[in-house]
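Consortium newsletter contribution from the modelling node. Members have asked for a concrete example of what our holo predictions look like. Here is one, prepared for the S-adenosyl-L-homocysteine complex that several groups have been discussing at recent meetings.
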Amino acid sequence: MKILLTDLNPTEIAERLNIKPFQGKQIFRWIHQKKIFDFDRMTDLSKDLRTRLHESCAAGQLQLASMSTSPRATGTKKALFKLSDGETVESVLIREKDRVTLCLSTQVGCAVKCSFCATGHSGYTRNLTPGEIVEQALYLLTDENMGERTPNIVYMGMGEPFRNYDATVRSIRLLMSPDGLGIGARRITVSTVGEVRGIEQFANEDWQVRLSVSLHAANDEKRSELIPLNRKYPIAKLKDAIRTYLDKTNRQITFEWTLLDGVNDSMQDAKELIALAGSLKAHVNLIPYNPVHGLGYTPPPRDRCEAFRDALEQANISATLRKEKGQDIDAACGQLRRRHAELANTN
Ligand code: SAH
Ligand code: SF4
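And here is the predicted structure:
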């Protein structure tokens, strides 16, 4: 098995190859800062070292299978990557005036099976390695895509990051490396469906990386229908874990709330959310549902989304209502891959 260099930090590269620490840094910089994966183009390495790299290492496992650009939401791009075993994952890049937000995947599929989610419906295949997570960023955070904009990274693509905890944490450290992309911790957000043990573990990490919890319903009956994992970790347990997190880190969390027409968009839903978010001083991120063919959910009309946000704000809960971005390119997680699978089945 070849050593996958994108799994490793500069010190580890040096140790694994038994080379000097500065050489480990050189290799890491070629890959992470210059995004050069071809050893022959790493011109400041000796010929000997390049030959060794060819023999024992691989850099750049992902292949771009397709890239779609939204004609409506200018600047939104969606990439489908093919992994070395033929599996596929997707990443979304959203470009705004002064920043770009990159949405990364952590697993091929997802075993949590939320009722509204395309990734959940495609089932679970495997975890991604740290390098496979980082490479999504290396391919998409190019000078051309970024320009003068500040990069932000959200772990909101395919998969549940806390079911692939170690690789997720390792990938974050690689993305933060000053010899690499050097992304600031506060510019990185991990989103979990509510894996309680992961939240507790995350509270012990020594950094300022942000945490989002996908809530979608603030009573157990409704939440369990949408998110089967809520039966194992009901809201009271989730709340305890978030309290532990807040006590240890003193950092505000965000609740993600995907607005589903007639499901979680009533004033009663808002009231329940206000009580929970208020007690945990959480920010709320409202996302109108991005329809997935065949799952039977739709987003509420815009005025109901706005009324929901206004109700939260009137109760002093800080809330952001996201614009729908990139619906036309299936930009919700798991959708592009699902479309590809459907096409493959009909061919
Ligand atoms: N597994 C993690 C992270 C990936 S999903 C989690 O569930 O938090 C990232 C976010 O996208 C979650 O809040 C999820 O509920 C939401 N989501 C999934 N499918 C969606 C869709 N079709 N439209 C809008 N949001 C969706
Ligand atoms: Fe998995 Fe998140 Fe989709 Fe739920 S919403 S199935 S946890 S990826």
